[in-house]
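We now fix the convention by which a protein and its fold are recorded. Here is one such record, which you should read through line by line:

>
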Amino acid sequence: MTVNETQDLHKDPVSERSTTELVRDLGEQLSTLIRTELRLAQRELQHKGKEAGKGAALFGVAGVVAGFGGLAMLAAVILLIAIVLPVWLSALIVGAGLLLIAAAIAVLGRSQLRKSTPLMPEDAVGGAQWDARILKEATKK
């Protein structure tokens, strides 16, 4: 490779282009970058969604099996109390206890739901606003 060829490789092609061309190219490159990043995020979310779906299905099956186990345990508790009290009364006591537990859990769930509303990704929105502010300040200079 000759000295002239080496110098040609190191020439800055940006210095030969007008500001208008550079700004236009910047806009095109930024648009391409954003589209590419969005496609990547979409594919990643699709993959993670499929994996999460499989995991959720397995949790669902585990929940059903655990439910049957819980029912068997409740029957055992009712039969244990039935040694001392009539069966109908022991079933009533266990049922009332379960309803009280369910009510307490429902109150906790309701308070958690109130904390989570409104359903807006506040961190993501804040990040996007910060990015926009930085870009705006950079273009003013």
